[in-house]
Amino acid sequence: MSSVPLHYIDLRAFCYATEDDRRVESALRTLLPEAFELQRLENEGHHGDRILVFSARVENADEMRVVLDRLGELPADQRQRLRSELDERVTDNTELFLTLDKQAAFGGDVRLGDGITVRAKVEAYPATKDAAVENARDVLESP
C-alpha cells in the first residue's frame, strides 16, 4: 500500500481504578509506533473513582502503516468478520470504528474485543459512506 486512504487514526483506552495504569498504557502502545506520545487525562467516575483516559492520534502515513500492520495481525476469521461488517462499522461521516481486546493487547496480541477503541477517518471522494466502505475494505485487505 503506497498511500494510506486514511486521514488519521484515533486510539483510546480507559484505565479504571481497579487497573494498573502502566499495563493499560502498555496495551495501547502495542498498536503504536515506538516512542509515540500518548495523551493522558484523569477523570472522575460517577462514584468518585479515578478513571484515566489514554489516547493517541496518528496522522503521519508511516505511523499509520505501523498501526495498520498491527491490525493486520488479527486472526483471519476476525479480519473476515470486520470486512463483512464494514457497512455497520463505517459511519455516514466516513469513520471506521472497531474495538480491540485490551488484555490481549497487553500480552502483545491483537484481537477484536473490548477495551481499546479504534476510530479511523477514512478518505472518501466523494465523502460518502459507500466510498468510505470501499476504501476501508482496501485497508483491511492489504497485507
UniProtKB/TrEMBL annotation:
InterPro entries: PAB1135-like (IPR002739), Ribosomal_uL5_dom_sf (IPR022803). SUPFAM superfamilies: RL5-like. Pfam families: RNA_binding. Transmembrane segments: none annotated. PANTHER family: EXOSOME SUBUNIT, EXOSOME SUBUNIT, DUF54 FAMILY-RELATED. This is Exosome subunit, RNA binding protein with dsRBD fold. It comes from Halapricum desulfuricans.
